């Protein structure tokens, strides 16, 4: 049995030590992620996921805005550790992808297929998860690291204003990426007997 995909999946890890030593152009990375997101499956072929690519000053601005919002809600004595994490694990990377769901598209589907209306938002979450996994794995295949962060909704308004994000796009996650500066620890797994069942 072929295991090429499985081996790629094993390469995809959460990397918190990112750098800027990347040998691909921004255009090449954008095209790679665009292509894999387009191939990610979605219910009713709804294609509800949207991606904003940030590099250079725009990438750094994402994390500066994040720190500014975090400073408002983080106890002063804890902010130093928060600042170090954001600067070292996220801002230090080469770029950041902002992942959105187009809520107008979700609403259109809810109204167009009322029998399934209550499912379409859940299905949009499945789609964005599929797309994020595909993008993350494609980066790993090319020797790059990433992590998936969730500072939304804390940063939603600041990011929306800075990058002219449409009102109907809902921020669902931030994916900083770049060169892998150190390898992660081994991954732990829950016992298979707890997670899987098989019948015939």
A few lines on this structure:
The chain has helices at 4-11, 26-39, 56-73, 76-91, 103-112, 120-141, 156-163, 192-195, and strands at 18-19, 49-55, 95-102, 144-146, 169-180. The protein is α+β, with helices and mostly antiparallel strands. The chain has a single domain, classed as NADH Oxidase (3-Layer(aba) Sandwich), CATH 3.40.109.10.
The shape is: globular
The CATH homologous superfamily is named: NADH Oxidase
Could you estimate the helical fraction of the residues in percent? Answer: 40-55%
Oligomer: single chain
**Total of helices:** 8
Give the tally of β-strands: 5
* Structural category: alpha+beta
Q: What amount of the residues lies in strands?
A: 15-25%
> What is the string of helix and strand elements?
HEHEHHEHHEHEH
Please give the radius of gyration in angstroms: 18 Å
CATH class: Alpha Beta
Major beta sheet summary: 5 strands, antiparallel
What does this structure look like?
Helix 2 (26-39) crosses helix 6 and helix 3 packs antiparallel against helix 4 (76-91). The mean pLDDT is 97. This protein has helices spanning 4-11, 26-39, 56-73, 76-91, 103-112, 120-141, 156-163, 192-195, and strands at residues 18-19, 49-55, 95-102, 144-146, 169-180. The chain contains eight helices and five strands, in the order αβαβααβααβαβα. It has a single domain, classed as NADH Oxidase (3-Layer(aba) Sandwich). Strands 1, 2, 3, 4 and 5 form a five-stranded antiparallel beta sheet that branches. The protein is an alpha+beta fold and 200 residues long. It comes from Furfurilactobacillus curtus. Residues 10-178 form the Nitroreductase domain.
């Amino acid at each position: 049995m072929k295991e090429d995909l499985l081996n790629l999946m094993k390469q995809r890890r959460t990397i918190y030590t990112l750098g800027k030593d990347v040998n691909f152009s921004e255009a090449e990375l954008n095209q790679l992620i665009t292509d894999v997101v387009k191939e990610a499956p979605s219910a009713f072929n709804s294609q509800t996921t949207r991606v904003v690519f940030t590099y250079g000053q725009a990438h750094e601005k994402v994390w500066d805005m994040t720190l500014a919002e975090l400073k408002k809600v983080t106890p002063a004595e804890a902010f130093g550790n928060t600042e170090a994490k954001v600067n070292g694990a996220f801002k230090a990377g080469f770029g950041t992808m902002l992942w959105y769901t187009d809520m107008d598209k979700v609403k259109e589907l809810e109204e167009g297929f009322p029998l399934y209306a209550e499912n379409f938002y859940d299905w949009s979450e499945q789609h964005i998860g599929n797309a994020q996994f595909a993008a993350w794995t494609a980066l790993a295949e090319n020797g790059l690291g990433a992590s998936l962060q969730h500072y939304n909704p804390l940063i939603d308004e600041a990011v929306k204003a800075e990058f002219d994000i449409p009102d109907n796009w809902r921020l669902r996650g931030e994916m900083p990426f770049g060169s892998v500066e150190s390898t992660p620890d081994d991954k732990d797994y829950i016992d298979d007997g707890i997670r899987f069942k098989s019948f015939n």
